[in-house]
Amino acid sequence: xxxxxxxxxxxxxxxxxxxxxxxxxxxxxxxxxxxxxxxxxxxxxxxxxxxxxxxxxxxxxxxxxxxxxxxxxxxxxxxxxxxxxxxxxxxxxxxxxxxxxxxxxxxxxxxxxxxxxxxxxxxxxxxxxxxxxxxxxxxxxxxxxxxxxxxxxxxxxxxxxxxxxxxxxxxxxxxxxxxxxxxxxxxxxxxxxxxxxxxxxxxxxxxxxxxxxxxxxxxxxxxxxxxxxxxxxxxxxxxxxxxxxxxxxxxxxxxxxxxxxxxxxxxxxxxxxxxxxxxxxxxxxxxxxxxxxxxxxxxxxxxxxxxxxxxxxxxxxxxxxxxxxxxxxxxxxxxxxxxxxxxxxxxxxxxxxxxxxxxxxxxxxxxxxxxxxxxxxxxxxxxxxxxx
Length: 388
Ligand SMILES: [Fe+2]
Ligand SMILES: [Fe+2]
Hints:
By secondary structure, the protein is an alpha+beta fold. The chain has two domains: 3-246, Heme oxygenase-like (Heme Oxygenase, Chain A, Up-down Bundle), CATH 1.20.910; 257-386, Jelly Rolls, CATH 2.60.120. The protein is built from twelve helices and eleven strands. It has helices spanning 8-12, 15-25, 33-40, 45-72, 76-89, 99-109, 123-138, 141-149, 156-169, 178-199, 207-247, 371-377; strands at 272-278, 283-289, 298-304, 313-315, 319-325, 328-332, 335-339, 344-347, 353-357, 363-369, 384-386. The strands form three sheets. The protein has a six-stranded antiparallel beta sheet with strand order 1-2-3-10-5-8, with no helix packed on it. Strands 7-6-9 form a three-stranded antiparallel beta sheet, with no helix packed on it. The chain has a two-stranded antiparallel ribbon with strand order 4-11. Strand 6 (328-332) and strand 7 (335-339) form a beta hairpin. Helix 3 crosses helix 9, helix 5 packs antiparallel against helix 10 and helix 8 (141-149) packs across helix 11. Residues 62, 89, 99, 183 line the site of one fe (ii) ion.
């Protein structure tokens, strides 16, 4: 009897299929830094444009993967069901509605990719798509079904939800994200067709191991692809700075004197970039950015009234604190460092820190950070978090 004729309850309680689903849900793929970045809304539109330009090669190749599994499938009923998937992918009677085209509309409309046909794919992208196709072409029918159902279609709703949150995080409106919406709703059905196919082989020797290996192969290939995208994004973000370092050109050229020298002022200049007062934490301070022509440094003047503290916080950038006025202490993780005018304190990356003014006069210190480097290099959640 074909599995398609089994009642749904028999199919869903199949214990080995449940185990395969558990492995799918807990696969290390879900810990990809790229997926974490989507969930945190860490990507700019330029980042997303790069990510989804690379992903285009995969998206437009998708019907090739289905066709390859179809060619290996010896059951004419399953082939006809797979042809339904292909028909959906192809937009049915409306070629303009084929998924590859809807994806291109997203690239041009939402991400401003001028010409998707001119995208330069990285070699790691070509490699990923080639490996994916080879797996579908060479797989035994049951492994091919597992590769495409558990390892591919079955992860789409969860993966595309994460991508959607990243796209929304960059301010893209939902009406330009149709590609993701239609897949979140339709790929469950496609996965089911393939899962029925996979279950029809369940009695064969080695079935479970073959399915588990195919599932792992599909998710591992995709995890490697995502890791490559993530690494390339970091390099791309830093590339302009690296080029200027290699360029040997003075960046002082054409820069006005006011951007090279900042004159001492006892009073705040009024250019406050950040300030906070929290009575119960004894927090009260202001931060001004010094408007100098720095590329990666970000010097700031911090003022703390007598007896007050700034926030206890940590961040991705490192900071050198130089005390100009006032006495007190700087907390760095579990260290307490007494300070007076002329002292400098190094706050390494991610160290929890706070400056406390213990004197009777205002404290003033220069905080020089590499914020403009760290901000570009770091892809993740908020770079700066404060304990309130
Ligand atoms: Fe699709
Ligand atoms: Fe800080």
